[in-house]
Design goal:
199 residues; 9 helices; 2 strands; two-stranded antiparallel ribbon
Length: 199
């Protein structure tokens, strides 16, 4: 182990002895990205803190709370509610979030503690594009909802509780096909690359 490695320190303090090994397995066997490993680590840290406080963890609970605490598209009210719920259960939210790591910290851990080369991460992939774009879409949805809520308090605009859903669509000028962004990424490109596969 490298001295000063945050991943190792947090795992030791939180009783997550097998987590570093799981990170290595996901990187080598499943080819997980650094950003994916960042999420795995931070959700495990959060789940450990929630369990220690006696909170019941149903499937996906830690992942959902982690999203509420960290995602760019989450409203201030929703984030505050999530933090308050954790605090009422006895979780030290500030201590937990201080133990979260970035993908850069994961990279350092893999290189310096595990001897795993991570240089290929510099190349762009569909997952990176998906994460980046949908964070922006989510942020736009949250801003639009907020502005509509403000507008609803003025005269001349009446509305109930509005929920905004924005869809990113992509049209190829070459083949003429149009896709939702998620479908375009899932299928690995547009009709230009089709050689008999379904569109």
């Amino acid at each position: 182990m490298a001295d000063g490695c945050k991943v190792e320190r947090v795992c030791e303090r939180r009783g997550l002895a097998t987590l570093p090994e799981r990170l290595v397995e996901r990187r080598i066997e499943a080819d997980a990205s650094l950003r994916a490993l960042e999420r795995v680590f931070n959700r495990a840290v959060l789940a450990s803190a929630m369990r220690a406080a006696g909170m019941e963890l149903v499937d996906g609970a830690a992942a959902n709370v982690h999203r509420l605490l960290t995602a760019d598209d989450v409203s201030h009210a929703a984030r505050t509610e999530a933090r308050d719920r954790l605090a009422r259960a006895g979780v030290d939210v500030d201590a937990v979030t201080a133990d979260f790591v970035t993908y850069g910290t994961i990279r350092t851990h893999l290189r310096e503690c595990e001897g795993i080369e991570t240089g290929r991460e510099a190349t762009v992939d569909a997952e990176t594009v998906r994460d980046t774009v949908f964070k922006l879409v989510g942020r736009s949805e949250a801003v639009t909802e907020r502005e509509l809520s403000r507008l609803a308090t003025t005269e001349g605009f009446e509305a109930g509780e509005l929920s905004v859903s924005l869809t990113a669509r992509v049209a190829c000028e070459t083949c003429g096909e149009e896709y939702g962004l998620r479908r375009l990424l899932d299928r690995g490109g547009c009709g230009c690359g089709d050689t008999g596969r379904e569109s």
